[in-house]
Design a protein that fits this description.
Layout: E1 11-16, E2 20-25, E3 30-38, H1 49-71, E4 80-83, H2 86-97, E5 107-109, E6 115-120, E7 139-143, H3 166-177, H4 188-193, E8 203-205, E9 208-211, H5 219-234, H6 243-263, E10 276-278, H7 281-284, H8 293-298, E11 302-304, H9 308-316, H10 322-339, H11 343-346, H12 355-362, H13 372-390, E12 392-399, E13 415-422, H14 431-450, H15 455-465
Antiparallel strand pairs: 1-2, 2-3, 3-5, 3-6, 4-6, 7-8, 7-12, 8-9, 10-11, 12-13
Helix pairs in contact: 3-14, 5-6, 9-13, 10-13, 10-14, 12-13, 14-15
The chain binds MYO-inositol-(1,3,4,5,6)-pentakisphosphate and adenosine-5'-triphosphate.
MYO-inositol-(1,3,4,5,6)-pentakisphosphate is lined by residues 17-19, 144, 146, 170, 386, 390, 427, 431.
Organism: Salmo trutta
Subcellular location: Cytoplasm; Nucleus
Function: Phosphorylates Ins(1,3,4,5,6)P5 at position 2 to form Ins(1,2,3,4,5,6)P6 (InsP6 or phytate).
């Protein structure tokens, strides 16, 4: 990429999340990930080019030096921080504006710093000999799995957190607040159980979105349309199956391919003797899950060791105290930093994200010895776990060989896949106090909604009155969020 010859016409809108907007190159398999900030904060968020570049370099370092060793070399592409010509960025911002979904337009793309993260386009497979004559674009499925376990920490004061997972409780809160328009049937614990019989969320084809959970759409009709798109990939061209039958076959086949990619250990994909990570029954069953209990009870609860789901789950489980156990340690760190502000740097509260940071994460003492090092180690572990709870998995799939009517030859793989993990940004240290308040709100809302006469709710209120939760104002409402560079 020649940075001095950037032309906005070579790039197109690709997608965006809460914190960044992504454009992809029309010819080369590259994307640029640009930062966004809130329109309300537009003036305050103005960073110098050097600050913005440092922020992006921190993301690269964190991905490379912290998340990669934990999640596995093969799944991570940390990318490179780049400085782009300001004129190019301004023109690009104008060009993509009309493509942006309204729900994301509360934030604007950073056009002031000219800094971005350049990454490989993970919706595309790197060149593969068996696909070289393939004329169909690759399929790509993006899954945001969220937190895949029930907390077992002794610090938990609300029993419901041991029974219903965070995602399932949180979605009721999001529905009530209007962030979501309907409840999802997805439960992360089903995905991480290794027992597969459920619907998956999101799909993209060759960089063009062909199916996504649309709040207003009819799900079954949506899925039927998706199946028709995918028919050429999974069914012989002369298939006589009815539309309904073929939809079922196609979606089942798609799920099979995704599942084998999610469970593959990549180093030994065809080994019959896969090492497995066994999950205890308690951790894999969420009471709110719609997945048939019998299926979970009789299923073999294990993930192949080192498959992408196993790597993500074990990193998420670095949060072994739960936010309730972490809050007093966060306070300990806060007090220490108030007394010794210069310690912020030595303790690497905002990076640098290097081998020494990883060492603090991996070698944190098992028991609390009252030290600041222990508290910082647990805070760092919690932040790393938060990243793993919010990342996405990208599965790119290409059919192998020429279009031979998809005659099934058992010895020949029909698909080739690549699996990557994305969105591995560090979560700011300051976000921990927000997490504590949010946890209270989510659980409180869930209990009120599902068990209005629950005794636990009264206990919760009592706890709240004793101000055990950090930073909440008298009405129990959110205090102002402080954004801080990561
Ligand atoms: O709080 P959650 O679990 O809803 O996760 C947030 C995500 O919501 P989602 O689960 O996708 O509906 C949210 O994603 P969306 O905006 O919903 O796409 C962000 O990823 C947010 O992280 P950050 O503040 O941008 O660093 C995520 O926030 P944290 O990971 O900081 O909690
Ligand atoms: N390297 C990549 N290759 C292809 N697509 C990508 C890549 N990186 C990001 N994307 C796409 O852009 C979208 C937004 O990127 P990303 O998830 O990193 O943004 P975000 O603002 O950090 O998200 P969040 O809302 O989770 O904070 C992703 O959901 C994905 O579809």
């Amino acid at each position: 990429m020649e940075l001095d010859k950037m032309d906005e016409n070579d790039w197109k809108y690709h997608g965006e999340g809460n914190k960044s907007l992504v454009v992809s190159h029309v010819q080369h398999a590259r994307v640029l990930r640009l930062l966004k900030y809130s329109t309300e904060d537009a003036e305050n968020s103005h960073k110098t080019t050097e600050q913005a570049f440092r922020h992006i370099q921190n993301i690269v370092d964190y991905s490379q030096n912290v998340m990669k060793p934990l999640l596995g070399e093969k799944f991570i592409h940390n990318g490179e921080a780049v400085k782009l010509p300001l004129d190019f960025v301004r023109q690009l911002s104008l060009k993509v504006q009309q493509e942006r979904p309204e729900s994301r337009c509360d934030k604007v793309m950073d056009t002031l710093s000219g800094c971005a993260l350049c990454l490989p386009n993970l919706t595309q497979l790197s060149s593969c000999c068996c696909c070289s004559r393939e004329h169909r674009p690759p399929l790509c499925i993006e899954i945001k799995p969220k937190c895949g376990f029930l907390p077992a920490s002794r610090h938990i004061t609300k029993d419901i957190k041991r029974k219903v997972c965070r995602f399932c409780m949180h979605q009721h809160f999001k529905l009530a607040n209007g962030k979501w328009k309907r409840l999802s049937h997805y439960c992360p614990l089903d995905l991480f159980s290794g027992v597969f019989k459920f619907d998956l969320p999101l799909s993209v084809q060759g960089g063009e979105c062909i199916y996504t959970c649309n709040d207003d759409a009819d799900v079954l009709q949506d899925l039927d349309e998706l199946a028709q798109h995918l028919r050429p990939y999974f069914l012989p061209s002369g298939s006589l199956l009815s539309r309904q039958q073929s939809s079922k076959v196609v979606l089942n086949e798609l799920i099979q391919v995704i599942v084998s990619a999610l469970l593959s250990t990549w180093d030994c994909p065809r080994s019959g003797q896969l090492r497995k990570t066994h999950l205890s029954e308690g951790r894999v069953t969420c009471e709110a899950s719609l997945l048939h209990r019998d299926l979970l009870r009789n299923g073999n609860h294990c993930l192949p060791k080192d498959c992408v789901l196993d790597k993500i789950l074990s990193t998420q489980m670095l949060d072994n105290l739960d936010i309730e156990g972490l809050s007093p340690l966060f306070k300990r760190v806060e007090q220490h930093l108030q007394m010794f502000p210069k310690e912020r740097c030595r303790l690497q509260m905002d990076g640098p994200y290097n081998a020494s940071f990883l060492e603090k994460v991996q070698n944190c003492p098992a028991e609390d010895d009252g030290s600041i090092e222990y508290a910082v180690g647990k805070v760092h572990q919690y932040r790393v776990a938060m990243t793993a709870k919010d990342c996405s998995i990208m599965v790119a799939i290409a059919t192998c060989g020429e279009d031979d009517g998809l005659e099934i030859q058992p010895t020949k793989p029909r698909f080739t896949c690549s699996v990557s993990i994305l969105d591995l940004d560090p979560k700011p240290y300051e976000s921990i106090s927000h997490q504590s308040r949010l946890d209270y709100k989510i659980v409180n809302h869930y209990l009120r909604r599902t068990q209005p006469n629950n005794q636990e709710l009264d206990n919760l209120e009592e706890l709240a009155n004793q101000s055990l939760f950090l930073g909440r104002d008298r009405d129990g409402e959110d205090c102002t969020l402080v954004f801080h560079p990561v």
